[in-house]
Amino acid sequence: MVIVMGPGATRENVEAIVKVIAAAGGEAFVSRGVSRTIIGLVGDIAQLAALDLRGMPGVADVIRVSAPYKLVSRDNHPERSTVRVGGVPIGPDTVTLIAGPCAVETPEQTLEAALMAKAAGATLLRGGAYKPRTSPYAFQGLGEAGLRILADVREETGLPVVTEVVDADDVELVASYADMLQVGTRNAQNFALLQAVGASGRPVMLKRGMSATIEEWLMAAEYVAQRGNLDIVLCERGIRTFETATRNTLDVSAVPLAQRLSHLPVIVDPSHSGGHRDLVLPLTRAAIAAGADGVIIDVHPHPEQALCDGPQALVDGDLDELARVMERFPPLLGKVAAGDLLAPA
Question: Where is 156: in which H helix or E strand?
Answer without folding.
Answer: helix 144-157
